[in-house]
Design goal:
single chain, alpha+beta, 3 domains, globular, transferase, protein-glutamine gamma-glutamyltransferase activity, sporulation, Gln_gamma-glutamylTfrase_bac
């Protein structure tokens, strides 16, 4: 839903919206209605019968293959996939102006491109590494920005290093934050430079991360009580998959998996960027974590990823086994701390907040004293 900037039905907003939808090739799959309310006028974009027929049970993972889109290489095709997926959503995507809608399209596209190219190695806690020419590490503040360097350059070097042999170590949780933060910073550079300065200044003292990152920079839609359909994804969403096995979920870093949906039925692979996950391959990997968990000679619970990879390959050669695993995994996850009959599918998705100076709902907080 896109609101008129001044709260009244103006032809300019409608024309801009119609023109955008025509430009990306979405018009044949959508319909637009004008809705009046006490607080103003909104332009609501709906999936028409044609789009609904292409996405049974809200399944957006097949849009690229059905429409023969090349979202991985064409920005126009990716924008079309984003728009169609959003229009098909059972949850409303609200934008207070046309400018905010266009900014959201750009940031989602950036998230996809950054995530798809991300090349990092696995590390958690004190094992994490960042480029020392951009970041300073302190156990109390984590990786802070070195004064005088660009936040955009620093995040880009860390997550998309120009030398692919130089991969810095991250947890998938932190890596997903860097992807989203970089996409946001690039958009702010042109849309809201003052907010980018605030963001950069904050990174000098303590990065925005973990729960604070979620609360300050992201929208979340869906819940365990009202879940997002299992196969509904919009390119540019951050997605979590839970490890439903209680034993192996105690391995640090294997409690679950944070990824970004990059369109075409694919989720980025932080460790092997040229081998993104499908929903099926992600479920198989997480399922077999239970077989890779072991206790090392020091008594620490570890993960042997070679065993996981071998188990996945064995399963993929047996369709009946794949079907059995997916039956267990393609279920909504149990609540936090519960390991019963739930699978790995989360009930919600996350995406970046509004950025335009007149409508942003991002407020960079001062550093919290811990």
């Amino acid at each position: 839903m896109v609101r008129s900037a001044d709260g009244i039905a103006d032809e300019s907003t409608r024309q801009k919206l119609v023109h955008y939808l025509e430009q990306v090739g979405a018009s044949n799959y959508l319909r637009i209605s004008i809705e009046n309310a006490d607080d103003g006028v909104s332009y609501r974009v709906y999936a028409n019968d044609r789009l609904m027929a292409l996405t049974p049970q809200f399944d957006t993972t097949q849009l690229c293959s059905i429409l023969r889109l090349d979202s991985a290489n064409s920005d126009r095709d990716l924008e079309l996939e984003i728009v169609l997926a959003m229009a098909r959503s059972p949850f409303e995507f609200h934008f207070p102006s046309m400018q905010e809608f266009e900014a959201a399209m750009r940031t989602r596209l950036q998230v996809v491109r950054i995530a798809a190219r991300a090349q990092i190695s696995f590390g958690t806690g004190l094992d994490e590494v960042r480029p020392t020419e951009y970041f300073h590490f302190d156990p109390s503040t984590r990786f802070t920005l070195i004064p005088g360097v660009s936040l955009i350059d620093a995040l880009s070097e860390a997550i998309n290093p120009p030398n692919t042999d130089r991969a810095y170590s991250f947890s998938c949780y932190r890596a997903s934050e860097y992807v989203l933060a970089l996409a946001l910073a690039r958009e702010l550079a042109s849309t809201h430079p003052e907010l980018l300065v605030q963001m950069q200044n904050r990174w000098l003292s303590r990065p925005i991360m973990s729960k604070e990152f979620h609360e300050v920079l992201l929208f979340e839609y869906g819940s365990l009580e009202n879940p997002v359909p299992m196969q509904f994804y919009v390119p540019g969403d951050r997605v979590w998959f839970k490890n439903p096995d209680e034993y192996s979920s105690d391995v640090i870093g294997f409690e679950g998996s944070w990824v970004c949906y990059i369109g075409g039925g694919l989720f980025n692979n932080f460790w092997k960027s040229n081998n993104p996950f499908t929903l099926q391959s992600k479920c198989l990997e997480i399922y077999h974590w239970r077989h890779g968990a072991y206790v090392d000679p020091t008594g620490e619970l570890r993960m042997d990823e070679n065993i996981v990879e071998q188990r996945v390959l064995q399963s993929e050669s047996c369709p009946a086994e794949v079907e059995s695993i997916l039956e267990k995994m393609l279920r909504f996850r149990d609540p936090s701390g519960v390991y019963e009959q739930g699978g790995c599918i989360d009930a919600s998705r996350e995406h970046l907040r509004w950025v335009h100076p007149s409508t942003t709902n991002i407020c960079i907080p001062p550093v919290k004293i811990i």
